[in-house]
Amino acid sequence: MRRFNQLGILALSLVMLWSCQENETQRPELEEVPQEVLEKVAVLGFNADEVKMYDGNLFIEGDIRISLDQLDRMSPSEGLPVEEHYHTDNLVTGTPRTINVFVNMPQKYKDATDIAIDRYNNESLNLTFNRVSSSGQADITIKASPWYYYWFGILGSAGFPENGDPYGTILMTRGYYDNVSNINGLATTIAHEMGHCIGFRHTDYMDRSYSCGGAPDNEGDGGVGANHIPGTPTGPSANSWMLACGSPEGDRPFTADDKTALGYVY
Question: Does a structural domain hold residue 19?
Answer without folding.
Answer: no
